[in-house]
Amino acid sequence: MATGAGRYNEILDTFTRHIAEIGYDGVNFGLVAKELGVSKGTIVHHFGTKDRILAALHESYMTRRLAELDHMLEKLKDPAEQLAAALHAFMLYHVEDRAATVAFQREVVRLADEESMAKGAELRQQYFTRVRDVIQAGVDAGVFRQVDPTVDALLMFGSAQWAWTWFHPDGDRPIDAIGSALVDLVLGSLLVDRDRVTELSDPAGRAAKAVRDAMQVVAETEGKAAS
């Protein structure tokens, strides 16, 4: 039987899966306690309140995403490749970390202004700022057209935000193809040299490979920390 950090993670993972499936309002301590074979008091001991579990989901999700993004930005120095990697990642998370991605995205409005969500919101802003700065760097380097980087970043995040409502892992559209389409859509409008779009949108290319490498590195780091 899991104890300590193991039990904490087990509770968080179970809440996350149920939030992804039925939404935050449909999940309660009794549902999770029954599935895990623990008392409601055990959940209270680890988290205190239901809102705190949502906050923990938010923080852990954005911590992973930031670590992965930083790894990608370090490995890829070209703004076009960096942005392509971020866009591939937006979609790949819907398969590789699906429950947390769906739970996070379907509750993002609830996460916006709650005081208990402040740390997660700060992490989310850091992620947004990094992506916006990549666009600005591309504009400054003459790689991207002159655009408003904040508006373009908001549009990118907005388009990815609702993918959970229509993408299904067992559907007829593989995630690699959807990621490629998103890169094609965004970079096709930004790049001065549009001949690069095919290379950047390639799911076997450098940008997409950097995403998978980053996810592996972060997963291994988390595994070592948990052991």
From TrEMBL:
Question: Which superkingdom, per the lineage?
Answer: Bacteria
A Pfam short name:
TetR_N
| HTH tetR-type domain span | 5-65
Q: Summarize which parts of the chain are annotated to bind DNA, as ranges.
A: 28-47
What keywords is this UniProt entry annotated with? DNA-binding, Repressor, Transcription, Transcription regulation
- Indicate yes or no for the key word DNA-binding: yes
Name the InterPro entries for this protein.
Answer: Homeodomain-like_sf, HTH-type_TetR-like_transc_reg, HTH_TetR, KstR2_TetR_C, Tet_transcr_reg_TetR-rel_C_sf
PANTHER family documented for this protein: HTH-TYPE TRANSCRIPTIONAL REGULATOR RUTR, HTH-TYPE TRANSCRIPTIONAL REPRESSOR KSTR2
Protein name in the entry? TetR/AcrR family transcriptional regulator
Species of origin: Nocardioides vastitatis
Tell me the lineage of the source organism: Bacteria, Bacillati, Actinomycetota, Actinomycetes, Propionibacteriales
